[in-house]
Design goal:
Helix content: 40-55%
Distance between the termini: 18 Å
Strand content: 5-15%
Order of helices and strands: HHHEHEEEEHEHH
Oligomer: single chain
Radius of gyration: 15 Å
Length: 166
């Protein structure tokens, strides 16, 4: 596991993830939610950043390094990591086939979840730091809670991001 991932993800999750990885078994959440999420054809990164030290940029690069089609979402940017940037999820061409990683302030996360549900997006991963009780309540209200990944799991750990260029 990279030092970058260790700095971003909660220690309790990292201990469990390392233990399970060493034993060759997935975490409890990965068995039920990670596989469907990671089997999507496209990955949107809401909160993507042009600044490489920001986690929105690292998550985008993580998907790219894993050979996945990734789309940066940020209303203030035109391009991130050489990819055209979309202002919000409503600009996705196939939202129902897109899994969404969220790296936003908790107050913004609520509106992202509402928009995702309206667009028929089924798989959303709240990266550590973007969730709140209000966001989780919103996910339940809009029907995303059964597939929502939240509470500590980190895509940088799950995919083994090392911070190298893609």
């Amino acid at each position: 596991m990279s030092q970058l991932a260790a700095a971003f993800c909660p220690v309790s999750y990292l201990v469990q993830a390392n233990h399970n990885r060493a034993r060759g078994t997935p975490t409890a959440m990965s068995a039920g939610k990670f596989s469907p999420f990671l089997s999507a054809t496209t990955f949107a990164v809401v909160g993507a950043s042009t600044r490489r030290e920001k986690f929105g940029n690292k998550v985008l690069r993580c998907y790219l390094q894993d050979g996945k089609k990734a789309i940066p979402i940020n209303p203030r940017e035109k391009e991130i990591e050489g990819l055209p940037c979309l202002a919000n999820l409503s600009f996705l061409t196939c939202p129902s086939e897109t899994a969404v990683s969220v790296i936003t302030p908790p107050a913004v996360t609520v509106s992202v979840l509402e928009q995702a549900a309206k667009l028929g997006i089924k798989h959303v991963w709240l990266q550590p730091g973007c969730e709140s009780p209000e966001a989780i309540a919103t996910a339940e209200r809009v029907g995303l809670l059964p597939t929502l990944i939240f509470g500590g799991p980190c895509v940088l750990v799950e995919l083994g991001f090392e911070g190298r260029d893609h």
